[in-house]
Batch of 2 targets.
Target 1
Amino acid sequence: MVDKVRIATTSLAGCFGCHMSFLDIDEKLLDLIELVEFDRTPITDIKTCGPCDVGLIEGGVCNSHNVHVLKEFRENCKTLVAVGACAFNGGIPALRNHYELKDCLEESYINGIGIENPQIPNDPEVPLLLDKVHPVHEVVSIDYFLPGCPPSAEAIWTFLNELLSGQEIVLPYTALHYD
Amino acid sequence: MAQQIITIDAQEVPFQEGQTIMDAAMSAGVYIPHLCHNPEFKPQGSCRLCTVEVNGKRMAACTTKAIPGQEIQNNISALQENRRALIQMLFVEGNHICPGCPKTGNCQLQAVAYYVGMLSSHYQHFYPYRELDASHPNYVVDFNRCILCELCVRASRDVDGKNIFGISGRGIKSHLVINSTSGKLGDTDFNVDDRAALVCPVGAILRKRLRYTTPIGERLYDQQPINVVGDSTQPHAGAKKQW
């Protein structure tokens, strides 16, 4: 029996929209599971990434935990893929980059509308926010990018098929978009 | 005057005396990527995307006159790679968050990026802080997305005769400014019928309240690439129809 390809996925500073789009390949998941085995992913709920062939990263990097997870993926995955608009350039979370982090926190937790018991969270369990949100390529080297908000199920399926079969990755025009 | 001939990627392209390489290419339906060029206005050659190799020398197609016998290379990998790098630099210099932009799908920056195969922004992002000007009743100017093509500057100055827009500063500090005492669009005589209101190739000058009239997926560049459907000529950011 041929060893299955091991895939890990994670969502950093993303909305899980890319993962939802991944699940939108629907019954093709059954075809996929014939070829791959999932390591760390929200689907398996495995908490740390072991040695893998492919890592799919959704979201940009906004806090210390994101940096940790991204580096863990880079160390363990032979091929690392940035999936979606936030991994690509920070996306919507990067809109906060125009403001001071302190101002963002105060707006959210001190001065915002309807806040009771105003205080900025400082529990040690809560990862510290980075000063700015970064795209993943600013933190580790990335092998492939699959843009889109989210990339369509068709784009993800085509991409994975071509990657797994060792072909050059060529997406149809309608599958490549930034929005 | 008899038609004369240049070749672009080995294809014979006729031209009239006085035409630029870009004019000749556009008349013949040969696509040379460009952002600051619009045939209605005097070419200025600032975006450099239309750089082609003319008998081995790199020149901007929009400002170089066609001369008989020119052998021009356009769609070659070395030039496409340079174009991709230029587009990536435009992406990191401004704040181009496509999922949050009403112009998405009708945006020429995005369309050229698709055409040159940009899959990542590659460079480190600047994330500059730029104000938004919503002072005008019908238009909003989002400086975050300005690529300094100067089409609005030329349209306002040369067609509308109003001189509402200008570029101030030098080098990386160059930025779009508005010609009023307050610096706000609302304090100018800019109006919806101005030519300058319709020429922005990106989502920097936007008509209010009409931004999502055409669903994403049905916009100009959603199904077909820019070398097939041509430049964005939508009357407003979210429109399907062309003016």
Target 2
Amino acid sequence: MLKQTESRAPVSQKSHKIDKPVDPNSIGATITIELNEKKIAVPLGTTILEACKANQVRVPTLCHHEDLCIAGVCRVCVVEVEGMKSLQAACAFPITSQIKIKTSTENVRKARRHIIDLLLSEHHGECYTCVRNRNCELRALASEYGVDGFTFGHREKKMHEIDKSSYSVLRDMDKCILCRRCVRTCIDLQEVGVLEAIDRGGKTHIGTFMGKPLSEVICINCGQCINRCPTGALFTNDPSDDIWRAIDDPTKHVVIQTAPSPRAAIGEEFGMPAGTSMTGELNTALRRIGFDKVFDTDFSADLTIMEEGTELLLRLKAALVDKDPNVKLPQFTSCSPGWVKFIEHFYPESLDYLSTAKSPQQMFGALMKTYYAQEYNLDPKDIVTVAVMPCSAKKFECNRPEMVDSGYKDVDYGLTTRELAKMIKEAGIFLPEMPKSEFNDPFGEASGAGLIFGATGGVMEAALRTAYELITGREVPFENLRIEACRGFEGIKQASVKLEGCVPAWSFLEGVDLKFVVAHGTANARTVMELFKQGELNDVHFVEIMGCPGGCIGGGGQPIPTSPEIRKKRAEAIYAEDESMTIRKSHENPHVKLIYEKFLTDGPCGHKSHELLHTKYVKRGSFIV
Amino acid sequence: MDLGIEKSARKGLVLFTQYEAGSAIKKAIAGGREDVLFELRESRLKGRGGAGFPTSTKWMITAAATAEKKYIVCNADEGEPGTFKDRVLLMEYPEAVFDGMVIAGYTIGAQYGIVYLRGEYEYMFAMLKEYLEGMRAKNLLGQNILGKEGFNFDIEIRLGSGAYVCGEETALIESLEGQRGEPRNRPPYPVNTGYMGFPTVVNNVETLAAVPHILLKTGEWFRKHGTDKSTGSKLFSVSGDCERPGVYELPWGISVRELLDVVGARDTKAVQVGGASGVCIPKSQFMRKLSYEDAGTGGSVMVFNETRSMLNVMHNFMDFFVEESCGQCTPCRIGNERLLEGVHKLISGDFTFAYIRNLKELGATMQVASKCGLGQSSPNAFLSILENFSDEIYQSNGSGVTHA
């Protein structure tokens, strides 16, 4: 089994969690402490914060984030531990002895208020106009912890220019409170390492290599830092004004495609619990906003399966039948633009292993301005294509110079879930109230396979459902088509399916153990790539990698906050929707069949699809001049 | 073993006495680890860097830890303003310092020792390396030291890069590992999870230098010097308004007044004990004793006479902390800036007493809520000067000149 390597983050930015005992009943596994004069038993090594959470004691946090290692830098979570002369950070204190904790003494309250006061004194807020207005952790803390004035002043002047260089991620350092969640996200959670604390004392700031703008460093645009920023210091490059302009322009035919992950999460922006699927409601809302057509990205996800799956089978044939020594296996998926930029920067020598298939978003865009324009007699120059994605990197992807195979910019705007929620609110629509409606034709129907692309392992599961059936003529041998080996949030998953009873055309695959690996988050991707370089994946055929933790449902454009629990619920919504679908295999999607009959007549990976649906990559490397 | 340095005519009770290189190592090896720990515990030696943690406890925890590797780190970062005693020890008494490290290595079971040498002391680097070479030649370092089967130990010197915070032991370890020098969360402590994750003892130069003397002359002898809670002697680096500034070895428990007499200070208005992170003592408190239990110090004693402006002193210290905070935790990073702002307002005369009261409360928060000792001690000077010299401070008329 593949092992995850240890994080490369500096120790001061890593957790110092003590391994909790495996058997909670073994002697010494639990320890009795006193929390606010109440005796409780906790597992050895539990942090004070965890102990408080489990016992209905709320402790404020700011630098702490469930997904990240422990920093203990903001100090807002300080509590009193009897016998210690200083207050202790609850998030960073592992319990290993019978301590007595008090969470609301005069000293503690005073310290918390002081800390919030201090942060406000350096924070140029502009709350009214802030992108995180009403969803700001600092603002919430200030109101919860009795900050009723700027005791130590308040910064009135802007000190920094907003870095707007990136297509995806913008930075406003006036709002940064130096909690370093972004730093830990970048180096520890994603192992990219673009952001770091620079200088010291009062001059400390979060910066990039040589202070370069974000577009000129090795940022992969995953936007995970945005999802974890407690304030509005990090946000996406919002194209909604341009989209409004297009909608208002009567000469423009504005179409929108929605990916599965935003639909499973956008409800959170309207107060719905995580995991509420809003597909039908969203379709109605988008039409009311003024989009001319609403399409389902799942359609092009199905198309991706056909293209990418065929590509894999061709590579397998080249390896097994033609004995081509240059064939590149395993084949890596290419639908996650964060992952694509990651491999371009860090493993440019391995780019040939990446599938050449475009992502569903880009395939859709290319077809929109060719096939769709042709079918509906539209001039492609008047079509504006918008893609609702859970992703900030999709903004970068649609602006890649090579993504113009239709003769026009294939996708004009990448819009995140959060930005779309704002547009819906601005249009005077409360999403949960909307009646449900369907997607438009000619891409109206999609399969459940395209839908599950949203969760880590989904592409693999979709591909297997199709590939297995094409090769053997039988459905994948799993109950209700659930391929459990692909599901779940383990960092790196590895499994195999034995191909037996193959149909004549694929008889060369008879007896082959189809091996696959699934990883999510670029930290795990790095581990996979290191193993690949060591030759440990030589017998693997297909590798799915998603740039974000949890896959697209945890994307950098998704509603804030994010946590393992929230991502799990979003994934559950997607898998539940899949089971409710009538078509659950990409190759059974009638629109996909139709498009290969009518438009892409030379079939998957044929000449036309190569022209429109496949792409090439850039050897970027780690140094950018 | 001769460094070619002429040892000046220093006089003292423990450290500034004759010590024959290697003799304490011999005794340690002959007696065994338990004996070393016993003598150390008997001596009640506490850390000389300023924090005053019992050395024997530190060593015992590390000795008891089971690990593939262990480390002993000599903290020679000596960054506290007004401290220059480690420089003297390393230049003139390297035999005691390095033998102390070897004994520590033997006792805790470490194979490696690292000296974290202050960047500004680079000029000593070559000389110290040469000294270590000499030790290797005499088998005081290396394999099977002094014939003790299986006792392998060597020392390496690393240079710091000038950050004050790297004197904090966990920031020092981060720096040694090649990271940005920032304190870690504690617990776990370095004695369990230190350099490269291995159990590590970090001791001040002076602490290590005392070890060979304690071993040769017994802990009981050491304990006879000083006070009950502050045993032994201390090196004081005295600077400022006095006739004979320099490094003095004196027993713990000596009063500020007595020390001032020794160094020939006259018309003294204030004494800053413990460097920038210490407290400022006014004339009325000169009977206070220099000791862990009263006025503690890692060695720095700064003397200010009647001509000095305490506002300037305060300004200087706060400037220092705003610059030297590592920038990691909120109370220290922003708190020090706010205190410095307060000093500016005190100087300009543009302040209210309510505002000053807020700053004092903030100082108290910084003392308990900061992540490491730097932040916890950074408001000390501000608070004590405000407390002890309030008449002078509040008499500022806005011209920036105070009336003493």
